[in-house]
Specification:
Length: 185
Amino acid sequence: MIVRWLLTNKEPGQKIRHPPCRGEPLKTEEVRLEVPEGRQLIIGQAHFIKTVEDLYEAMVTSMPGIKFGVAFCEASGKALVRFDGSDQKLADAARDYATKVGAGHSFFVVLDGAFPINVLNRIKAVEEVAQVYCATSNPVTVLVAEASGGRGILGVIDGVTPKGAESDRDREERRGFLRKIGYKR
C-alpha cells in the first residue's frame, strides 16, 4: 500500500516522498528492562513469522543443554508476540520483555547458564535476522518510537557510563577473569 502511494503520488522525475503520517506526532518512550542475576538478554530485529522457530533451532543447536527463551513481535497479520524456548520460565521472560517493548519485528532471547558469545554468531546467521541491538546481563533501557499505530526500537542504552580507563591492576584482573572462566588459556 505504501509503495502504491509512493508511485502514484509523484510526477515523472520527482523524488519519492514518504506518505503523510496521519497528523500524529512521533512519540518516544524509554522502556527499562531488568535482567535478573545470572541471566543474559539479547535484543534484535528480524522479520517473518518463522523467526521464533529459526531462532529456537539456532539456539538449541549452538550448545548441548542450553537453557533459553525466545520471543518475537509480529508487525502485521495477527500481530502477536510469538514465543518458545527450552525452559518455560525463560520463554515466559522473553515473552514479557517483548510485550513490554512491543516493537514490531523485534526479538528477545533470554539465556541462563550460557553467554551471548556462545550463540551470537548463530543468531546473526539466521536469514531473517536484520540486526542485533545488544547482548548483555546489564539493565537495559530500550528507546522506542511510536507513530501511526506502530512501534520501533531506535536503540538501546546498555549499562552505565564508563568511570575511567583501566589501570595496570584492572588489566591484570580482566586477564585473570577471562582465564578463570575458561575463555583464555
